Amino acid sequence: MSGLRVLVISHAYAAPINRGKLHALARRPGLEVSLLAPRRWREGGRDYVTAAGEERGVRVFAGDVMFPGRVGGHFYRDGLWRALRAARPEVIHLEEEPWSLAAGQVLAAAMFWRPRPALAVFSWENLDLRFRWPIRAIEQAALRRADVLIAGGRTARERLIRLGADPGRVEVLPQFGLDPALFRPPGPGEGPGVFTAGFVGRLVPGKGADLLVEALGGLDGEWRALVVGDGPLRPALEARAASAGIAGRVEFTGWVAHEEVPPLLRRMSALAVPSRTTPLWAEQFGHVLIEGMSSGAVPVGSSSGEIPHVIGGEGLVFPEGEAPALREALRRLRDEPGLRDRLAGAGRARVLREFSWEALAGRTCALYERALRGRAPADRRSGGSGR
Fold this sequence. Notes:
This protein is an alpha/beta fold and 387 residues long. The chain has 2 domains: 198 residues, 3-Layer(aba) Sandwich (Rossmann fold), CATH 3.40.50; 158 residues, Rossmann fold (3-Layer(aba) Sandwich), CATH 3.40.50.2000. It has an 8-stranded mixed sheet, with helices on both faces. A 6-stranded parallel sheet has the order 15-14-13-16-17-18, with helices on both faces. Helix 5 links the parallel strand 11 and strand 12.
């Protein structure tokens, strides 16, 4: 691949920690990577500000958006045309849901751009939500117009196909990976001295931390637990641990910054992800699963959404909502150190193979080439320079 210009558009990169894939793409020879992200974005109680400029080989554009913080409901007041004129993309990589207002805006802009860039559209959505017009119309247009559709997981791919997308144009590739040097297994003296079950995430009903506390309440023998995160359920969880007589063995850290998570994962023998499906949400990936696998913690996840596919054969899966099944999975890992070590080694190897930033960048480049090949012959002509 030589001299290929790519413009990535996504609110997700307002958080700098998410940009590892873009930096890895920029290191690939002949690839010019530009990014358009909201100038201001609010997510998870944090405010992010994107500054235009150059960042590790990526040309960054910032645009003001209406409704910052609304994943599907924001759109650009300015910045989109500026980024298109400056980047002159041959590929637009849109990492916004195909039903979003931002997707509709980008689709409309691309209609008037010549030569027409190839379009890769990403989606995490894995539930059959009932959208009204014009949201439904935007999504259908995106499915028709995209040269490549990228699903964040198998359940998202299945949804796109149910909506009528050509299965041959839908590939599974998660949006985010990780730095395996940052999320590494424990070194000497870093690992848990006793079997430790962990949880990392928001303490809300959908994430299922209460199931972990319930499971631990009936777990005999020697163990510890580490609950990383905060949320409205924390007081109830602490009270439940106290009433079960296990408060002294369960540590609640409260909220921690993302850069503080790796050393905490290295203190865990197993990482529980007991998410529950709700009418409006099912686990779309569970990024902490690969972070735990990379750090030597064996994943134990529920059957919600994408979790079983992410865990694969490198961990244990239990039926969602069933605390006794979670308890049994934890007991098994504690009592079978050979199984635990085998799964931990297999999980780390899989992360290196599939989920490092470099691995994701390589597969993303292959999808760019595929998107370019998929364009109509008239769209490949190089005449014109866009508006």
